[in-house]
Amino acid sequence: MDLANWFQSIAERRWPILPATLLEVRDACSRHNDLISFTELANLCLSDPLLLFDLLRVVGGSRALQRNESIPSVEQTLMLMGLEAVVHRFGKLSAMQAVPDKLDAEVVDAVEDWLGRSRVAALIIKEWLSISGEHKVEDCFVAALIYNLPACLYLIYRNQLPDKPLLQEVADHFGSDYSKVLEQFVQAMPLPAGLLNLLGSGAPSKRKQLLKLAMATANSLEQGWWRSSWNVGLDLVAKLIGATPQQVYLGVVQACLTVARQPRAAAYTYPARCILLIEGEYKRPELKKAAVLTSPDQLEQGIRESIRHLSNDLKFERVLFYRYDHDSHSLRLKYQVGLAEGHALRKLPLELEPGSFLALLTSKAQSFHAPESVRNQLVRKYEDDFFEHIGDSEFAIMSLYLGHRLAGVFYVDNGRSGRDIDDTSYHRFKELVARLTPHH
């Protein structure tokens, strides 16, 4: 794939946007003209880099913009285009979705993941600039959203997951630094030339340096926030903006949580999950491809048998199953073994507050093992009533999905003796719950 030819093929077509964004765009544009809000549409563009890309391409070739080397604000761009033109253009958008033999679901998930990282990086640099007393941040915000786009389009073209870190694979494929690929991407589309002040190879500046550090921070979160190389970047940011490393780190946490609370796609929650992880090797849990069981009775029987097995054979001292209640959007205890009489959890519904540990856990089918050190970190990093009620022991927890529908959550611990949950017991716990969602 030659870089110039590839860019030409990208420039020749319109690209789909995230399905959740498209629904909101259609809703916003279907109202009476007096009720269509440019501010709302601008915020939608700033939540989905693919939609932003679609918009910036309209004005990227403007001679006035190329001369001034400026980046107009997104809201200003929409107003300059005019309501009729905006509604007409946005009316022809399509949604990105898996297509057999053309675009695999796992590749779509990876694209959404990298778009989410861009959004996290945008919020990170906004916070860092704010701490340093700079409040004109939209140029950096937009540049952060654009940064990962060539890599995302590469994923879509290749329709396979990368063997190396994604940006490195893109660079190696084209025999060029990723920064050079990005610079040529801005010029080839074309996007507003002012982006090159931040994404180009010109003179260094504090804003450009902060942008690179924000991108590196968001893009490498899954490799472990505990790594010294990750924290060195935050220490450098602290020196650049005159803040403490703790302030800088909290800006990252807040950005991850904000994106997870308003996810454009399930993968927008991944950075928040990474912030929760503990030191050690991490393998992202795979989404189970599940078939709905033929009847509610069968599911109920399977859950009861699983609880008996977890308690009698695997010897977990406490086994809880929480059923998801759709109407109240909460988890309610359905079955339990080992909870003391009068225990608060017997009657207490667990609210799935946006950004809470349980909300993130239940956003997809996955499991989590929290030894004591991990549990303590979770409590420190996360304010969640669940930890208060469950006590101090290590635990394992897993969400149960039927198809794309959350059914509930299994929880196990050895709350009386404090005995560790060894790897074998944890894997058998995961296998047992996974069996309730047989593959197609």
From TrEMBL:
Q: Which PROSITE patterns match?
A: HDOD
- Entry superkingdom: Bacteria
Residue ranges of every copy of the HDOD domain listed in the record? 15-205
InterPro entries, alphabetically?
GAF-like_dom_sf, HDOD
Query: A Pfam family for this UniProt protein?
Result: HDOD
List the protein's name: HDOD domain-containing protein
